[in-house]
Every structure is written in structure tokens, then in C-alpha cells.
Amino acid sequence: MNRRARGTRTALAALAAALLLAACTEGGAPSGPGPAPSAASPLPATAPTPQGLLLTADFGADTVTFVDPQRGAVASVAVGRAPYGLAVGADGRAWVATAEGVAVVDTRTRVRLARIPYRTDTAPVTDGEYRGGGMGIALSPDGAHAYVGVNVPGTTGVLEVVDTAKREVTAVVPVGRRPFDVDVSPDGAEIYATGHDSFDVTVVAAGTLRPRRIEVAPYGTEDGLGSWLKPHYTAVRPSDGKLLLPFEGERLAVVDPRTGSTTVEPMTADTHQHGATLTPDGRLLVVGTGAVEPVEGKGPSLTVRSPDGAERVYPLEGPHEDVTVSRDSRTAYVTGGYTRDGYWNGITVVDLGTGATHRLSAGARPLGIAVL
Fold first, then answer.
1. First-to-last CA distance in the chain?
2. What is the tens place of the pLDDT at every residue in 240-255?
3. At residue 4, does pLDDT exceed 70?
4. Distance (Å, whole) CA 196 – CA 179
């Protein structure tokens, strides 16, 4: 039995109870070791957005920030309270999941076009990890729909379906608790909502919107809401459509969404893991946020896992949350926002060939990130 499946589980359960059944402690004041992020001159308001910038969702503010990958933050746009995830379509419009609704931003002109309210009552609009409102978000391959996972504090979440042409919510589907991540199958036929606090992925058929729950719990569900050993983010493998969910830098759950079966493969980073993405050549990138307890695991890192299972683990300075990759697959961009304490206002740029890193300024507590 794994060390986290033995005595640590009991200790963590007690800790979690003291934190009001929190799965990941709510963030405090920004902090972080290492050199200060680099800064850049702002873009003139009337200048078009250059190609190749990054876009981050500023969970610690009401903005998204445009980031030059060499120089740092260059512009911001107000979108709504505590934006979490974002998705950018081929038309250059960004769809941002905030506490207040889904904001639509024209990334070429840096203008907010709309904010679409949720159908679901999520209680008063607040900040912090446990706030109600949008979390994970994804677009259908044809751009006709945006799918946003909406957290409803104290109960199960929902998937709200947005018609991107009409800019309105057209359907609401029940999913798991606190839907950290939303993904779509390569053919657009299914949507996957990762329920952090319910140990599951909800598979939603795009045509009928019928949900189907798959439990994903390689450590078991013994401690319930008090457990740290729960899913956070999912990557969809294009080669076979299977779902990849990393846990604790020790186990990779590989889920077949058609059958609901799960196999578990070993991982090597030995760190609490959050964000995940895939490069076009099939490498899995996973953000390690640090040890759950100082004596139980290693520090923050970025795991680069080849399709054959071989891993390289690059250390990072301070906690991070999510990750995206450059168009040429040579560079990773890792957000420092983090949903727990210790976040910082920037991103780390990682050379995937050498592991060399440097920091950039990037808004306020950035979580979601995309390459424009």
C-alpha cells in the first residue's frame, strides 16, 4: 500500500476537517521564491493584439491579461469577478469562466463583447477557490458551443451549455462537485467534466446531453471531501480518446470513457498535481504544486511524460496551477496563480528541451492560460 494510502490519509483527514472539509486550502497573500518576474511596456489601447501572445485568467482580479512570452504582461481586460478557466476559439474570441458568468473577449481588439449569466443560482458572488460560478471551460471543435463547469457551493455542480452565436445558456446538465476541468473529445461527440470533490468524470453526450458518471479514485474515496487524493485536471489523448488524470506524481489514471474502465500507470514526480495538457506529439505535461506535507513528497515541478511512459521532472520555484504549450511544442507556460496558498502573480516559462526556466509578470493570481 502506498505511503499516502496509509498513515498520511488519517492525518490529512484531520487537517481537512479543521479546514471545513477543504480539499485544497484557499489562497492567501501572494508569495513565491525565486527572481522577480520580468515586466513589459503596455500595448497602446488602439494597437491590434500581436500574434503569439498568451492570455491568462486572473483569479485574483476581475481581468484577463495579455502576456508577451518574452517580456511579460502588456494589457488587461475586465471580464468579471474571479475568472478561472478560459478557452480561445479559431475566431480569436476568448470564453472566460468567471464567478458572474461567461465573459466573451475579442482578443484581437482586447474588448469584452458580452458576459453571459449562468442559469444556475450559485449564491452571492465571491472570491477564492470555493466560490460559486464557472471553473473549467471548453469549446466544441466547431466553435458552436462553449461548455462551462459551474460550481454550486455545498452541492453537486452543473455543466452549462452556451450557444456561442446566440450568446446564451441553452441547457444545464448535472455533473460532479466542483468541476475543476472541462474537456471535449476530438470529434466533439462527448464532453468530460472532472468533479474534484466527487472523485469522478461526468461524460456528457453532446447530442442528447445525457450524463454518465465514471468514478476515478486510484487511492479510494475513504476520506470523502477531506481527501487530498482527488482528480483535478484531465487531458484527452487524441490517439485513442482516453482520459489521462494524474494523481500525486505517483499514479496516472487512464480512463476509457466508452467502457468506464480505468488502468493505473506509475508516475515519478512525487508531488501533489494539478494542471495537465498534451503536446501535439503526445507528451503529457503535468504541474506539480508541491508536497501535501513537508515530509511527504517533493516540491513543485513540471513533469514531461513521453507516450512510452518515460518521464523528465523539471523543478519549479514556488507553487503553480495550470499549463499550456507553445505552437512549436518547445516551450511550456505554467501559471503561478494556484488555487491554494502561496500563489504568485506570474508564469514560469520552461524550455522543454533543457528544463531551463524564467519568470514573467502575468496579471493577478493567473490560473487558466492559452496561447493566442
1. 44
2. 999 999 999 999 999 9
3. no
4. 6
Q: State the Cα–Cα distance between residues 43 and 333, nearest whole angstrom.
A: 21
Rounded to an integer, what distance in angstroms lies between the CA atom of residue 259 and that of residue 255? 9
159: which strand partners?
A: 149, 173
Long-range contacts of 88-91 (CB under 8 A, 24+ apart): 88/55, 88/370, 88/372, 89/139, 89/143, 89/164, 90/143, 91/143
| Cβ-based burial of 167 (10 A; exposed 0-12, middle 13-18, buried ≥19) | middle
The 10s digit of each residue's pLDDT in 93-105 is 999 999 999 999 9
d(CA 326, CA 79): 25
- The one-character DSSP state at 251 is E
Find out whether 83 and 368 touch, Cβ atoms under 8 Å.
Answer: yes
Which phi and psi (to 5°) does residue 76 adopt?
A: -140, 155
SS3 content of the chain, % helix, strand, coil (to 5): 5, 40, 50
DSSP symbols for 254-297: EE-TTT--EEEEE----SEEEEEEE-TTS-EEEEEEE-SBTTBS
Name the nearest CA neighbour of 371 among 69, 41, 12.
Answer: 69
pTM of structure: 0.91
Positive/negative CA dihedral, 265, 268, 273, 276: negative
Q: How far apart are CA 10 and CA 339, in angstroms?
A: 23
- Quick one: residue 356, left, alpha or beta (phi over 0 = left, psi -120 to 50 = alpha)? beta
Q: Which amino acid is at 244?
A: L
Of 209, 171, 204, nearest in space to 190 by CA: 204
Residue 3: all three cell numbers together: 505511503
Q: Cβ-count burial of 165 within 10 angstroms (0-12 exposed, 13-18 middle, 19+ buried)? A: exposed
